[in-house]
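ok so heres the complex, three chains, lmk if somethin looks off
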Amino acid sequence: MVVASPLAAYLLVAALLFAIGLAGALTRRNAILVLIGIELMLNAANLNFIAFWRYGPHPEALTGMMFAIFSIAVAAAEAAVGLGLVISIYRHARTTDLDQMNRMKG
Amino acid sequence: MSFAFYLIVALTLAGGLAAVLLRNTVHCALALTVAFAGLALLFLGLDAQFAGFAQILVYIGAVAILVVFAILLTRSSEAEQEGVFSKSWLVGLVIAAGVFAVLGWAVLASARALPWQAAAPIVTVRDIGNVLVGRYVLPLEIVALLLTAATIGAVIVALHEKERTR
Amino acid sequence: MAATPISVTIDQIFILFRDWLVHFLPVAVRPFAAVVLGVIAIACVFPGLFALTTVFERKGLGRMQNRLGPNRVGPFGFFQPIADGIKALTKEDVIPFRADAVVHFIAPLVLVVAVFMGFAVLPMGRNMVLVDMDSGLLFFFAMGASTELSVFMAGWSSRNKYSILGAMRAVGQMISYEVPLLLSSVSVVMIAGSLSLTKIVEAQNHYTGIFPHWYVFTPWGFAAFLMFSIAATAETNRSPFDLPEGESELVAGYFTEYSGFKFALFFLGEYLGMFSISGLGATLFLGGWSAPLSFLNVIPSWIWFFSKVMAAIFIFIWMRGTLPRLRQDQLMNFAWKFVLPFTLLNLVVTALWRFMGEGWARWVVCTAILALAYVLMGRTGMHRKKIGPRSYRYAE
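and the predicted structre for the whole thing:
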C-alpha cells in the first residue's frame, strides 16, 4: 500500500495495533489477556507520539520522545498494579475467567 | 518506505495478532514480547534511540516477565475448559473494527496535511538529561511518586495474607 | 611516554587489516563490509575464548580442589574443548514428549543472540568498537534484560517441575540483581558525563605521574566496582549464586531437558555473558583498554582489554572453587537489603565527590562515609531469617 507520507504509514500501523489490542481486551476471557491488550494499546499510542515527534516541526523540542518515555514508565507501573490485582482476584475467585465474575457480591 | 520497514511492521502486527488470538496464554505472552521488540525496532527506525532502548529494557525486561509470572501464579497456563473467547466476542470485534475504521479514515483523509520533516533530529542523551531536570522536572518527580505508590500498592494487593479464621 | 610508530601500528593492527580488506570493495559497500568484518571477528574470537575458558575452568577448579583437571586430550588436556564440541554436536537431541517444541527450540537461540549483541558496544582497543553508540551503556543493559525471558522460556517449555523451579529462581535472582548492576554503572555515568562507552574509557585514559585515573581507584568507584562484581556474578548465575543451575540441587535447573547442541548453546550463552559483563566491568571501572602504568602504553590496547577480561574470568573461577552456594532466600535478602541500599548510598557519595572539588578532603569524606555505611549495614541488616513450615505458593 503506497501512502503519501511516511508519517501516514506509521500512523496507520499504530491505529492497526491499537485496534488489535482493543479487540483482544474486549473479546478474551482471561483477565491477563485483557491486560495484554491494554499494553498493546499503550504501545500503539507511544508509536504515534514518536512518529509525530520525528516528522513534525521542531523535533529538537523533545516533547514527543519525553512523553513516550514517561508513558513507558507509567505503563510499567500500571502493569504491576494490574497484575497484582489479577493475582488477588484469582486468590478469591479461584479463576481468572472474566465471564464468571458477573456478581458484585464477594 | 524501505523493505526493512515493511518487515518490521509485519513482525509487529503478527506478534500483536498472535498475542490476542492464540489459545495458550504463555504463547500469547511470548508473542507480546515479539510485538514489543518490533516496536522497539520501529522506534530505532524513527531515530528515537533512547526510547527504543528504554522500550526493550522496560517492556521486554520487566513487563513481559511480570505477565508470565502472573500467568504462572494464576495457573492460566493450563488448558482452558470452555474456549478462550468470551460470549460477547462479536461485539468486541465490531467495536475494534469501528475504531480502526475511524482512525484509518482520519489518517488517510488528512494525509496531505501531515507534516514531513526529512531531516532526522540530532538528539543526544545529554539533551534528554538536561530536559528531564529542566523543563520536565515536574513530570519526572510525579512519575517517581507514582512508581513508588504503584510498587507499594502492588505488593500490598498481591500480598499473601495469613489464613483468617472464618 | 610517546608512542613509537611501530607500537601504534601493532596497536591498530586489526583496524589496519580491516581497512586493507575493505579497500578491495566498491566505495558504496565499504561501511557495511567494515561492520560485517567486525562481526565476524567477534563471532570468532569470543567463542574461541569460550573454548579456552572451559578448559581453564576445569583445570583451575581441579587444582583448587587438589586434583588434576582433564589431562588426557592433547598436551595437559588443552584440546578438551574439541572433544567436548564433538560430543555436543553428535549427541542425540532429545525433546520431551509433552514439551512445547517451538518454545523449547528457540529459547537457546534467543539467549545466544541477546548475549552476542552485547559485544557490539564494548571498546576492545583504541578505535576498536563495533558500533559507537551515544547510548551504548543503555543498549548493553537492554540486551542483558532480554536474556531473562529466554531463561524462563527454557524452563517453562520443558514441562518439568525442576526446570520451572529453576527458571523462576533464576529469573527472580536476575531481576533482583539487575537494579544494583544498573545503579552502580550510573555512578560512573555521573562522573564521566556520557552513556557512550568509548567516552567513558577516554575519561579514564589520563595519568597523574604514572598512575592512571581509573575509576576503581576512587572510593566511590571501588565501592561501585565491588557491588557491580557481586551483581554481575549473580546476573550470570555463577557460583556462589548458582542455585538455579546447582547440580546438586535441581539436576540442572532450567536446562535439565536440553541435550546435545542446545545444551552447548546454553553453556556458550552463559560463558559469553560472563565475558561481556567482565568486559563491561573492565570498561566502566578498570579503564577499558588503557594501560595500568603510563609507560606501559607500548603494549597494545587490545592486549590490556583482554588481559583485564581474563583476569576477571580467573576471579570468577576462583570464587566458584572457594565459596559455598547461597540459598535462594539468602541471595534475595542480600540483594535487596544490602547491595541495593549500599549502591544508592554510593550514588549520593559520588555526587558528593563531584561537587566537593579537587583535593584530599573529598577522599577522606567519601571513604569515611562508605566505610561507615558498610560496617553498619553489614552488621545490622543481615538478620537471620526464620524458616517456617513449607507452604505451596500458588496465588491462593
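quick notes: Chain B has six helices and no strands. thats all i got rn
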